[in-house]
Write a structure and sequence with these properties.
Helix content: 25-40%
Strand order of the largest sheet: 2-1-11-10-12-13-14-15-16
Shape: globular
Largest sheet: 9 strands, mixed
Oligomer: single chain
Radius of gyration: 25 Å
Strand content: 15-25%
Distance between the termini: 69 Å
Length: 620
């Protein structure tokens, strides 16, 4: 029997992910379901259309080969790669066998990779490029290697009996043609079976395996009718599939609806902008950092307009802001403002076009707090950002704003099935079908720390719920700074005060067990260099620039002004300007650009100590 006929024979159910995905894509056999680069070797930088039939054929052949290699129910298969079409097909192929897919963040170090492989028991891994291959191949060649097979998405010239190229894998899968066995395997998968093992770096830096079931992910299906997701949408996926946000919000939701998804292979802003021009997405899910960059770039582009044009554009932005604030606060928009906002709608459309977003209908933000100024700017130009909240352990979405009831500064209210409450300590507690069963290799003692006696997951986040049921995140329990004076301070509360300061890229407040608060600051070097040119400040390196007395005075003035809005014990007394950025690769940030504070404190310990007298060293 032909593969296409076998795919059509699969009985559709809603109890597992591949059944939902295959049923969706076989309804789109001749329609685009993916736009992918590096698929056509003659034009690797061009998006190529992949139909439902092409994708499912790829998926079944991967699954057929893996089945022949001995992959079966509950086998863990790793993927160590940047996003690409083969990655997406591998995810569904692994799940189709009842096996567990383990996405691995593409830039982790070799030691971290080996730790994850040994902890998980993973024996087979797919790798995406030469850098990931080198790390994995070095582990494969160890005497007591945890790996048994390495599959490369690129044409590796290296020869090894346990090394397989992707082309060889597909050919092997076609030869074996275990297609009917794949259908039988899918039909045996239940909602309680594990679908993925996701290692979360968290903010502590110690990765923990989070096993998530098919049912956990399928619980996210409830957002589809809320936002009217359909195959009429076009999605642009650039968040790594190794992070639960990109994995669920982009890859899984698009597969459930049949919406074509363009796969961006990087988080680099410039490529994402180019992809937006090429693809014209209607739905984008990303992290606050991307919206911040778009906001800053747009404002500075408008500032370069001639005076009259600049005045008109900023007038449109300011009137739109006012209308959006009134609307989301439940107040009546003044008639005059509403009239001017309508008259200036062509300018609003022009700003959207400037950002390559004129066709967008939905913007989502998650993974970290969205600055309120950024939220109001986008809402004011007719592109409200829907902010939500969740964790790897919750598959991920727990709460989310709604289009008709969007409240900036909050992360919305619970999705159907989710229960959220606040403990006496202020911690957010969560229960529902999206919540995992427990960490990989978790002990009974650890379970008592992770879940309450009544079964609520302890998120570790601090928050409040307002009178309308909207959740607001205020910090992390482990991030609380306790000064030597005994004051409990949430650093995020202070850091958020600096969100609208254009000269500051990142600000990390420190001061645990110290007399006062200090801060490590990463400047916005693009704007800082521009400031230096305009004020005749000469320098040769960024180290010289941040050390210049005029720059130090500039930042001191701005910090003191902003700190007037917080309590005296929350004010930043000293700061250090860093001459380099915080990045995921260098360890300061998680994949969603939240601070990994323990790593920052350790990495910059000497700089932090210099901001305090020797008598005020941190107590051990």
């Amino acid at each position: 029997m032909q593969l296409i006929e076998i795919i059509k024979e699969l009985e559709a159910t809603n109890k597992n992910i591949p059944s939902l995905e295959i049923d969706s894509y076989r309804k789109h056999f001749s329609k685009p379901v993916f736009y992918a680069k590096n698929y056509n070797k003659e034009f690797p930088d061009k998006f190529v259309t992949i139909t439902g039939e092409e994708f499912l054929t790829l998926q079944y052949n991967i699954a057929s080969a893996l089945l022949a290699y001995g992959v079966e129910k509950d086998t863990i298969v790793g993927i160590f790669s940047r996003n690409n079409l083969y990655y997406a097909a591998t995810v569904f192929a692994v799940m189709s066998l009842g096996a567990i897919v383990m996405p691995i963040y593409p830039t982790i170090l070799q030691d971290e990779l080996e730790e994850i492989l040994r902890d998980s028991g993973c024996r087979t891994i797919f790798v995406g490029d030469a850098a990931q291959f080198q790390k994995s191949f070095a582990i494969l060649n160890k005497v007591q290697s945890p790996l048994r097979r390495l599959i490369t998405y690129f044409d590796s010239k290296t020869k090894h009996e346990q090394l397989v190229t992707f082309d060889e894998l597909i050919q092997f899968g076609e030869e074996k043609a275990h297609y009917e066995e794949i259908n039988r395997a899918i039909e045996k998968i239940n909602s309680e079976d594990y679908a993925a093992l996701m290692y979360t770096p968290g903010t502590s830096g110690d990765p923990r395996g989070v096993p998530l079931t098919h049912g956990n992910f399928i619980s996210q299906h409830v957002v589809i009718p809320i936002f009217k997701f359909s195959d009429a949408d076009i999605r642009l996926a650039h968040l790594p599939f190794s992070h639960v946000y990109g994995f669920a919000a982009d890859l899984l939701i698009s597969s459930f609806t049949g919406a074509p998804m363009a796969i961006s292979t990087t988080l680099e802003s410039e490529e994402i902008y180019r992809n937006m021009i090429d693809i014209k997405p209607t739905v984008i899910a990303t992290v606050p950092r991307m919206y911040e960059k778009l906001y800053i770039n747009t404002i500075h582009t408008i500032r370069r307009f001639n005076p009259i044009k600049r005045f008109i554009y900023f007038s449109s932005i300011n009137i739109g802001r006012g209308c959006y604030i009134a609307q989301t606060s439940g107040k009546t928009i003044p008639k005059g403002a509403a009239l001017f906002n309508k008259l200036l709608s062509p300018i609003t459309k022009s700003i959207q076009k400037l950002m390559h977003m004129q066709q967008v209908r939905l913007l989502f933000s998650g993974g970290a707090p969205l600055p309120i100024d950024v939220s109001i700017f986008f809402g004011g130009i007719g592109l409200p950002i829907i902010e939500g909240y969740g964790l790897t352990e919750t598959s991920p979405t727990v709460t989310i704003n709604r289009i008709e009831k969007n409240k900036p500064g909050t992360v919305g209210y619970p999705i159907p099935g989710a229960e959220v409450k606040i403990s006496d300590e202020g911690e957010i507690l969560i229960k529902g079908p999206m919540v995992f069963k427990g960490y990989h290799k978790m002990t009974p003692e650890e379970r008592l720390e992770v879940f309450t006696a009544s079964g609520y997951f302890r998120s570790g986040d601090i928050g409040t719920i307002d009178e309308d049921g909207y959740l607001r995140i205020t910090g992390r329990l482990k991030d609380i700074i306790i000064t030597s004076q005994g004051k409990n301070i949430v650093p995020l509360h202070i850091e958020k005060k600096f969100e609208a300061e254009p000269l500051i890229n990142y600000i990390c407040v420190v001061g645990d067990n110290r007399k006062y608060l200090s801060a490590l600051i990463v400047p916005n070097f693009h704007l800082l260099r521009q400031y230096a040119r305009e004020h005749g400040i000469s320098y040769k390196t960024d180290e010289e620039l941040v050390s210049h007395h005029q720059i130090q005075t500039l930042f001191k003035t701005r910090i003191n002004e902003i700190c007037q809005t917080v309590a005296p014990y929350e004010q930043i007394k000293k700061f250090t300007l860093l001459a380099h950025d915080f990045t995921v690769k260098t360890g300061e940030l998680t994949p969603t650009f939240k601070f990994r504070r323990s790593q920052i404190h350790e990495k910059y310990k000497d700089l932090i100590d210099l901001m305090y007298p020797k008598s005020d060293t941190t107590r051990l």
